[in-house]
Design brief:
Elements lengths: L12 E5 L3 E6 L9 E6 L2 E6 L5 E9 L4 E5 L2 E3 L6 H13 L1 E13 L8 E12 L11 E6 H9 L6 H12 L5
Parallel strand pairs: 4-9
Antiparallel strand pairs: 1-2, 2-3, 4-7, 5-6, 5-10, 8-9
Length: 179
């Protein structure tokens, strides 16, 4: 069903808020006793950055939501007043101490359109190079370099679990950046 009049999104009411997200209640015209709830977050960015010798820049960090350390691509929120391109460059530097000669935008994507209203902007970073000795101390991550073939193998064998990183790899592959 595509009838957008069933849900009164303009009447969304915030029912819970944290530093990172809020939960909004949206009136449902068909089921007045059962409102729809969505997670509202700032837009975010993620980058698959590749060094000239085909190493993928990764970050390893503990994720309380899944109670385990996760190996991921560098990512983060777009700060107020910042463009997604500025955010991805900042996040890459903060989390890994690297920059890229140039960055290609792979597009805007929805993380989970059934429940989350934010946009995830995906990028590919060409010719990543070290610019600082170590990532900033406020970032609780470890920077990791992984050979592209190993990254690809982990995706194929189900050992790489972060879905947006898999999507970023697939889009970079379709664009011919990691073939």
């Amino acid at each position: 069903m595509t009838d957008s009049t069933l849900f009164q999104t303009e009447q969304a009411e915030q029912v819970f808020e944290t530093r990172w997200f809020s939960i909004e209640k949206i009136p449902n015209r068909l089921e007045t006793e059962n409102p729809y709830y969505r997670l509202s977050c700032d837009d975010s960015v993620e980058i698959l950055a590749l060094t000239p010798d085909k190493q993928v820049l990764m970050v390893l960090q503990f994720r309380p939501a899944v109670s385990m350390p996760m190996l991921e691509l560098p990512a983060g929120h777009v700060d107020p007043g910042e463009t997604p391109e500025q955010a991805v460059q900042r996040e890459l530097e903060e989390e890994t101490g690297y920059a890229c000669e140039w960055i290609t935008y792979l597009g805007p994507h929805k993380i989970a359109a059934s429940r989350i209203n934010s946009t995830l902007h995906l990028y590919f970073g060409h010719n990543a190079y070290k610019i600082i000795g170590e990532c900033r101390k406020h970032e609780k991550v470890d920077a990791v370099l992984m050979p592209l073939d190993e990254f690809r193998k982990r995706i194929q064998e189900g050992q790489y679990l972060e879905m947006s990183g898999i999507a970023t790899y697939c889009l970079a592959n379709l664009a011919g950046f990691v073939s």
